[in-house]
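Hi Y.,

Following your request, here is the sequence exactly as I used it, all 384 residues.
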Amino acid sequence: MAVAGHADFSDLRHIKRQLLSVAERSRERGLQHSGKWASELAFALEPLLLSELPPPPALTEEDARDLDAYTLAKSYFDLKEYDRAAYFLRGCKSQKAYFLYMYSRYLSGEKKKDDETVDSLGPLEKGQVKNEALRELRVELSKKHKAQELDGFGLYLYGVVLRKLDLAKEAIDVFVEATHVLPLHWGAWLELCNLITDKEMLKFLSLPDTWMKEFFLAHIYTELQLIEEALQKYQSLIDAGFSKSTYIISQIAVAYHNIRDIDKALSIFNELRKQDPYRIENMDTFSNLLYVRSMKPELSYLAHNLCEIDKYRVETCCVIGNYYSLRSQHEKAALYFQRALKLNPRYLGAWTLMGHEYMEMKNTSAAIQAYRHAIEVNKRDYRA
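Below is the corresponding structure, written out as C-alpha cells. Let me know if you'd prefer a different format.
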C-alpha cells in the first residue's frame, strides 16, 4: 500500500467509515457539497461489511429535546425555505439544530443578496449588494467562539461569515481551527483554499496531520498553478487506493487544462465522461478545451447532452455559450453566459467568458467590468 506524503492510508476501510460518517453528518446540517464530496470519495473505496459500517451519531439530551423542531425545520430547509426553517429553530440548544438555525439565516441572506444582484445584472460595483445577515451572525458566532462553544461545523460557518465580511486573516485562523476540530469536513479545507494566495502563506499554516491534508494540498497546488506538485500529490493518492475516484480524475483533468496540455486533458475528460456520464461539474472546463481545438461536432454533442441532463445549471449555460461563440454568434453566447450568472452570480468561469464575448463584440467597457467581477470572485484567476 503506497503512502501519500506522510499521511497514513494503510487502513482504507477505516477511512471509508470516516467518510460515510462525515457524509451523513454533513447532510444532516444541510451541507450538501461536503456530503457529496465525502460520498464520492467513499464510493471509490471497496464496500464495507455490515459489521464494519459506522454507527449512527450518538444523540444527547439536547438533541432529543430539539428533535421535533429540527425535523420540521430541516424539511423546510431542504425546500430552500430558509427564513421559515430559522423561525422554528429559535431557542434550540443542540449543536446540530443551532448550526442549522445559523446556517438557515446565512443562506437566507445570501439568497436575498443573489436575487438583488440578478435584478441589477448591469455593472455592479463591489459591495453594492450585501448579505444583511452577516453582521448579526458574526456577533452571535463570535460570542460562542469566545466561550469555546462551537463545534467543527460551527467554526466552519463562523469562518464563512468572516470571509464574506472581508476579514480574511480572522477567517483563515478560524478555518484552521475548524480543520483541527473536525479534520474530515472538506468544506473547511476548501474555504481555506479560497483564502491562500501564495505558497508562502501555505508554509505558515499550522494544519492537522491527517490524510485529508493530502487532498487539501493537491487542491491548493492546483489553485496556485503549482501543477507539477499537484499532479504528484494526485498520483500518490491514486497509488494509495483512490484510483476509482472521479473527484481525483476530474482534478487531474483540470490541472492539465491549466498548463495547456490540451491532448492529455481532453483524453482524461473523455475517460471521466465514460465513468460518470451524467456529470455536469467541470464540463464547462471540458468545453473550453473543445473550443480551443475548434472541435465543433464534439462541442455541439456536449451542449445537447448537458441540455438534456439539466439545462438550468451554470456549467450547461457556459458550455452552450462556448458553442455559440465557436460559431461566432457572440450576442447569443453572451446571453448564455448572462443566464449562467443569473443562476450563480459568483460563478467565476462565466464572468471570464462573458468578458471574452464582450471583447469580440468590441464592447471594451463591459468586458473590463466582467473581468473585474472574475478577479473579485477569485484573485488568482490567471485567465481574467
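Confidence is low (pLDDT under 50) at residues 1-5, 123-127.

Thanks again,
Q.
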